[in-house]
Amino acid sequence: MARVFVDTNVLFPFSVMDLMLALTEDAIHEVLWTDALLAEWERVIVREQRRTAESASRITSSIREFFADSRVGEDEYQALVAEMPANDLDDQQHMAAAVAGGANVIITWNRGDFPSEPLACRGIRVLDPDEYLCELIVELPREVVDTVVRMAAGKRRPPLSAHDLADSLAKAGVPNFTTRLTARLDHGEAHRIWSSGGQPKKPMRAP
């Protein structure tokens, strides 16, 4: 199972963050986090007026509770910070935590902030979310699709189908992954109907 460190800028829109955490719940990968990462996310999400301070705090509290085993403590990575090849302290801390936590991948929209060659020497690749998710669905197609279907089934306000969820992910910046996901969803729907002796239909979408 891959261990990934997700940069703060990937954690909103919330749909991408939600998927990354759901994949951890289903043991498809493990998202590593630090207190500094969650604190930065809270500051940014509130500053950008995408969440209230109370809502952001509830989300990070839930992450701390439900994903406690994925925490990388400051005492585990602090000694590595000065060795990291970056000028920004936040980026240095994220890289150090990824190294200390045994991450295989750093996922970020700002790949230039995370020099790939020095990190490769430490066994860490740098990918954007679309690249990473595309690789994941090729490697573990059934598992990733099952996670998305489970996520959609749990949506109530408003109700969402798996295709609706795929649409929201495409708008959040992972269109290539969404293309692969939608093809898998369509194939699965057609396979179920043909197996039962019927004709394939277009997938149902929530209103």
From TrEMBL:
Keyword Protein biosynthesis: no
Domain VapC50 C-terminal residues, every copy: 129-182
Domain PIN: 3-111
InterPro entries: PIN-like_dom_sf, PIN_dom, VapC50_C
UniProt keywords, alphabetically: Hydrolase, Magnesium, Metal-binding, Nuclease
SUPFAM superfamilies from the UniProt entry: PIN domain-like (SSF88723)
Pfam families found in the cross-reference section: PIN_3, VapC50_C
Superkingdom, taxonomy of origin: Bacteria
UniProt GO MF annotations: hydrolase activity; metal ion binding; nuclease activity
Presence of keyword Membrane: no
Protein name as it appears in the record: Uncharacterized protein
Organism of this sequence: Phytohabitans flavus
